[in-house]
Design brief:
Layout (H helix, E strand, L loop, with lengths): L1 H15 L3 H17 L1 H4 L3 E3 L11 H9 L3 E8 L2 E7 L5 E3 L5 E3 L13 E4 L3 E3 L4 E2 L5 H5 L7 E5 L5 E2 L13 E4 L2 E4 L3
Parallel strand pairs: 1-2, 1-6, 6-9, 7-10, 9-11
Antiparallel strand pairs: 2-3, 4-5, 7-8, 11-12
Helix pairs in contact: 2-4
């Protein structure tokens, strides 16, 4: 665990050192790759995340998905659990735990249907589908039995490692998108 935390810190430092203007520019490039991607264009149910800090921002993709009438869901955490809730407008999100924008979802039932695509944030990714998140295991637990969900890691090239340490419970990404394009991973 100490080794994973050291790696998390290293990749967080790299990402957070990027100037804001570069984060916006590279995020726009990534968003355009996704908007042009046939897999995304054919997806009707998409799970997103709302960018926190200098995470890759998929806001242009989210806005297009909402305008196009796709079913868009975002994660909300409760204790050590996470569930996705469908929204129809970004104004339905509010700051929640860890300062992450989450669906308000008071009394709503989570969206239990399998997404066509799920975009996943993280601190580091590798080309074998490995992902190093923030250390709480929310995505790993949620997608432990993912079925047909296609998982897409979203990162800047400075967050891509040759090989990450993986535990048996770590979920693997199917694709990785960065400013260099979309890569099919060796899962």
């Amino acid at each position: 665990m100490k080794e994973k935390n050291k790696i998390r810190s290293e990749y967080r430092t790299k990402r957070d050192a990027m100037p804001d203007a570069l984060v916006r520019q590279l995020s726009d490039t990534i968003a355009q790759y996704l908007l042009d991607w046939e897999l995304y264009q054919n997806a009707q149910r998409v799970f997103f995340y709302y960018p926190l800090g200098k995470e890759v921002s998929l806001l242009p993709v989210i806005q297009e998905a909402l305008r196009a009438g796709r079913h868009c869901a975002f994660p909300k955490t409760f204790g050590d659990k996470m569930a996705f809730y469908e929204i129809s407008d970004l104004r339905e999100l509010k700051e929640g735990r860890f300062h992450v924008m989450e669906p308000q979802a008071e009394g709503d039932k989570p969206d239990l249907r399998e997404p066509d695509l799920c975009f996943v944030p993280g601190l580091a990714f590798d080309l074998a589908g490995g992902r190093l998140g923030y250390g709480k295991g929310y995505y790993d637990r949620y997608f432990a039995h993912k079925g047909a969900a296609v998982l897409v890691g979203c990162a800047f090239s400075c967050q891509i490692a040759d090989r990450l340490m993986a535990d048996a419970w770590d979920i693997r990404m199917d694709y990785l998108v960065s400013e260099q394009g979309i890569i099919t991973l060796e899962t």
